[in-house]
Amino acid sequence: MIPNDVAAIPPNPPRRALHLHRELDIVWRNGPGLWGQITSVSHTTLGLRFMGTAFVFFGIGGLLAMLIRAQLATPQSAFLDTALYNQIFTMHGSIMMFLFAIPMLEGLAMYLLPKMLGTRDLAFPRLSALGYWCYLLGGSILILALLAGVAPGDGWFMYTPLSGKTYSPGINADVWLLGVTFVEISALAAAIELMVSILRLRAPGMKLTQMPLFAWYILGTAAMMLAGFPPLILGSVLLEMERAFGWPFFDPERGGDPLLWQHLFWLFGHPEVYIIFLPAAGVLSTVIPVLSRTTIVGYGAIVAAILGMVFLSFGLWVHHMFTVGIPHLALAFFSAASMLVAVPTAVQIFAWIGTMWRGRPELKLPMLYVLGFFFTFVMGGLTGVMLAVVPFNWQAHDTAFVTAHLHYVLIGGFVFPMLAGVTWWMPLMSGRRRIRGLGESAFWLILIGFHGTFFLMHLTGLMGMPRRIPTYADNPEWMLLNLSSSFFGFVMTIGFALFTIDLILQAGFGKRSVRDPWHAPSLDWAMALPPPNYNFASLPGVELQKAGAADAMLKLARGEGFLPGAPRGRREILVTSVGSARPEHVALLPFNTALPLVVAFAICAFVLLMLGGFYAVAPVALIPVAGLIWAWARRAVAAVDAAPVEIAPGLLLPVHPANGATLTQSGLVSLLFANGTFFASLLFGLAFLTLVSPGPPVPAWQADGTVLLAAIAVLALLAAGTLGGRWALARVEAGQPAGAALIGSVVANLAALVALAALALGVLPDPTRHAGDAVRAALVAYVGLHIAVAVLFSAFALDQARRGELNPAHAGSLRNWGLWQRYTLAAAALATAALWAQELTA
Amino acid sequence: MKCAGFATVPLLLAGCKGPLSTLSPAGPIAQDIAWLWWALLAGAALLALLVFVLVALSFGRPREVPEKRWTFGLGVWFSLAVLTLTLAAALWVGERILPHGPALEVHAHARQWSWTFSHPGAQGPNEAEGVLHIPAGQPVDVLITSSDVIHSFWVPQLGGKMDAIPGRQNRLRIEATRPGTYEGLCAEFCGLEHASMRFEVIAHDPADWPPASLPVSPPLSPPALMEAPRP
Amino acid sequence: MRRVGGMGWLGWLIAGPTVWAAAFSVAYGLHGLGCELGWPALSLGPVSLQRVAIALPSLAAILVCLVLLARVKTALGPEAGIPRLGLWIGLIATLYTMAPVLVATSCRV
């Protein structure tokens, strides 16, 4: 039996560290050569690769920024033609947001979290790899489009109707919608696995309230990503449907509303800023106390501040829409919320300064970047409060003032902390020390270049210069301001180039670093440099978690923690309970595989077909995707007959959970949460188009009794499928065959799908007629897709039953399917009710 | 000199003026917002200074730190007090500049990439391309519409900006204290010729209103205006 | 409610801000609905139906936060600290974001 107090579990006897290392290395390491890189699923490899790729995109985005500054240096420059200029500023914003900032923080979190939490990898290693390949392929599509001259040019915010087919007829806008959505798969994948890893993979006994603050920050970030990205993905899907099939969601002449796009976009877009800021703040909360040789001030207050930010930042989105003509009271709600979100920020700022007061701050290179952060971000935050003031916003909105503000926030609040983090963890990542002098020069160039570029840009904006204009011949008063911004922009670029050179020199030629160079308390430094793929030869218990990196290192390497070595030749990690991290079971992680790359290619084929306008063929490309995901699930490590594992003397843990959820179940719950936000956004769209949107009213559907009957039939069949699944699970748990129940479920689900298809094709009004018809069809399509997946889930379980793989200890697929099935049933019922309500108001 | 906020840059001391500058307001609404800005700037400068000084002081010897005083005292209560003050000012000015009470109504209709304006004349509405005529010294409500994509009506010296959204009609109050010509532009990115979508507002002496010298044109009738939705 | 960690603790942790989020969404939705249906013109004594409708969910949210604040210590014991801060966040955020209801012009003019 697992004891309640983890600290009471006796330690494993020490063993030879080198022997353990060899044993683990064989099991966990990447394969040799390029193929080994392609098939790697290690969080260390992929985290580094995410960060490296993000840095390359940062370089490209920076280059585009320099082109913009070159164009604006003089009032009437003929350097870029307007169409190209529009593409360049659109791509600058899109790259920095979607291809740099988000992947950068994902990479850092993926790389660090398992090391900080005391485990060997993330919960879903293949998902990490899939996310990376989707990111790389989607990003490449965007860059290739830029090189081919067909990059999007409607601004990174893609406001409709400008981004609609009428005013942007080329494929440029499709590149943005499809490319960015493709990349967002990686964001969702990362969010799910970071969430599950933080909640379920912490070292035994590491309570939530004791875990490193960085993990709290990433937990908040992951939750925000799960709730924040779905509205953007929904908006992109709807706009692409409008462009491809003429479903008029945003077309005012057919009952659509351009403001719906703005709501969906900023419902993502504002939380996005905090998604970017939170991990950066996590770096600061990690670095500042160690460099001040003390502990953080106000752990609990900071956790509460994170909590506040996660929620409050979802109540601000309308402050990007203060000038669209929304009543003052509604603006005031969002103005107040925008003010309020400054409070948790202030709590953290003062906690960090308090920490520095309590300790003795050392002016090492990361601390320089911390100071750069304070100097820059505080100003950006204050201009942010100014912009939350509605009357001032009416003047400053869409001017260079906002450009300056957002760069103060993003470079101050993200880039400076990230540079602090990179210089901080570089010895860990490269195993080497940096070369003195170069880094300091880079810092000063970046700092001076940054403020030179953007400080006076506030004034440029107040003097009336709008954003996104390429020339300003009639306004000589803006000339000097712009020229100086451009000059210092190039200074900043030189600084970033120097920073990159410094990194390359350090990684290539630096002297070997000693272990734990900063004398850190956290587990991320309690390992060899650079870390092996398995991180820890044994997993730390409560005592070793608190010992500090230097003292824990040797004991962990000698196997005195839990689950030492890899004696069974498997990739084993410990799964613990959510709150107090009691060890629950041992999970087996998958080996290296190229499957994620193949799946990414299959999705890429679908994206390219959509991009090419082959709409009839594109859905066919989803069949290989479904097939590969089936193979993915089949190849999950099966341990039907695995014996319990002894993780410490006398403590046996099952390889499958006797009670408590599997990792997959936790992951599925996270996915369904994101899916639920997607669905809620769709319902919001339905309500918005029906109630708020001006323009022609929704024409009556004149749905008759057959429609009602068909809807009831679909719901009843789904309910039958659900009951069948429950029955099957009960039988499997009792050790009886479940084949009949499963066949019944598959048939019921299939019949539901057929009934829905008949309803959709037979009696649904033409979705191109009116936005109300389009959103109704979108809801039906959403339900249909979910039923189709439910069919696959039930068929997978049936296949497992046929192979004799289901038994009381191994019924996870039935539980997972049950989750999905119940979600589908609930969504179908809600959709029916919503459409009913739409009929009543129409 | 109001530019004192940027006194660190003597070169630009005189530079706050300009035909599009929000810092040289020419009417009560723009003036209200400009005052608000200078107040915000002063407050922000003080707060930034406070934080920078606190950071600088941290490089002394270690001190006892009462945690709650930093996180709750400074972090929550101090910032909440400052923010509440700001919010109150924001709401007060926000209500002042709203279109309350009677005003002359004019129309601004945007399309890629030009503006059509109309104002009531002696013999019916007068229409003009790229020029908006208003009387000085009295509030004017601009009814803003668009026939294609989203644009934004902005005359920095006379008031804030308001978007022109196809399918909707927005109302923005502006006012010029004295007769004169004021520059305006489209503030929302609207495609290729976004930068060239400029216009002028000519404020006339109230004694000469409505101006007789302007040509009288038939009532404004672009399609989107005719079916302009409920106000 | 379980004392030791688990989803129970996480549930308490997010309870306060969740209540705020719900009140905020409902108030914003009712505001839009009220403007469409002309609620500001219907007066209930000294105030309009519009302001009452928008204020009610906030009052309910504040009540919920107060009730939870009274119970959090017994439910979570020594682990109650951070969830209690969460409830205060919910309470203050609701008060703060709903304050403009008293003064700001409700619908388009």
TrEMBL record, chain A:
Q: Out of the domains of life, which is the source? A: Bacteria
Please provide the Gene Ontology terms (biological process) for this protein.
electron transport coupled proton transport; oxidative phosphorylation; respiratory electron transport chain
Keyword Metal-binding recorded: yes
Any Pfam family from its record, for instance, is COX1
Q: What class of enzyme is it?
A: translocase
GO CC annotation terms, alphabetical:
plasma membrane
Keywords in UniProt for this one?
Cell membrane, Copper, Electron transport, Heme, Iron, Membrane, Metal-binding, Respiratory chain, Translocase, Transmembrane, Transmembrane helix, Transport
Write out the pathway annotation from the protein's UniProt entry.
Answer: Energy metabolism; oxidative phosphorylation
Q: Name one GO molecular function term.
A: heme binding
Q: What is its EC number?
A: 7.1.1.9
**What residue stretches are annotated with the Cytochrome oxidase subunit I profile domain?**
29-543
- Membrane topology summary: Multi-pass membrane protein
Q: List the InterPro entries hit by this protein, alphabetically.
A: Cyt_c_oxase-like_su1_dom, Cyt_c_oxase-like_su1_sf, Cyt_C_Oxase_1, Cyt_c_Oxase_su1_BS, Cyt_c_oxidase_su1_bac
Segments passing through the bilayer: 46-68, 88-112, 132-151, 175-201, 213-239, 259-284, 296-318, 330-355, 367-394, 406-429, 441-463, 483-505, 586-608, 614-633, 668-692, 707-729, 741-765, 777-798
The protein's annotated catalytic reaction(s) are: 4 Fe(II)-[cytochrome c] + O2 + 8 H(+)(in) = 4 Fe(III)-[cytochrome c] + 2 H2O + 4 H(+)(out)
Cellular localization per UniProt: Cell membrane
Of which family is this protein a member? Belongs to the heme-copper respiratory oxidase family.
Name under which the protein is recorded:
cytochrome-c oxidase
From TrEMBL, chain B:
Swiss-Prot/TrEMBL keywords: Copper, Electron transport, Membrane, Metal-binding, Respiratory chain, Transmembrane, Transmembrane helix, Transport
Q: Which SUPFAM superfamilies does this entry report, sorted A to Z?
A: Cupredoxins (SSF49503)
Q: Which GO terms describe its molecular function?
A: copper ion binding; cytochrome-c oxidase activity; oxidoreductase activity
Catalysed conversion reaction: 4 Fe(II)-[cytochrome c] + O2 + 8 H(+)(in) = 4 Fe(III)-[cytochrome c] + 2 H2O + 4 H(+)(out)
The residues covered by the Cytochrome oxidase subunit II copper A binding domain are: 101-215
**Any one of the GO CC terms:** membrane
Q: Which InterPro entries match?
A: CcO_II, CcO_II-like_C, Copper_CuA, Cupredoxin, Cyt_c_oxidase_su2
Q: Name one GO biological process term.
A: ATP synthesis coupled electron transport
Compartment list = Membrane
| Ranges that cross the membrane | 36-59, 71-93
Keyword Cell cycle included in the entry's annotation: no
UniProt topology in membrane: Multi-pass membrane protein
Q: Does the keyword Membrane apply?
A: yes
Which family does the UniProt entry place this protein in?
Answer: Belongs to the cytochrome c oxidase subunit 2 family.
NCBIfam families per record: CoxB
What is known about what this protein does?
Subunits I and II form the functional core of the enzyme complex. Electrons originating in cytochrome c are transferred via heme a and Cu(A) to the binuclear center formed by heme a3 and Cu(B).
Its name, as the record gives it, is Cytochrome aa3 subunit 2
Write down the species.
Ancylobacter aquaticus
UniProtKB/TrEMBL annotation, chain C:
Q: Specify the domain of life of the species encoding this protein.
A: Bacteria
Task: Cite the entry's keywords alphabetically.
Answer: Membrane, Transmembrane, Transmembrane helix
Tell me where the transmembrane regions lie. Answer: 12-31, 51-70, 82-103
The name on file for this protein is Uncharacterized protein
Tell me the organism: Ancylobacter aquaticus
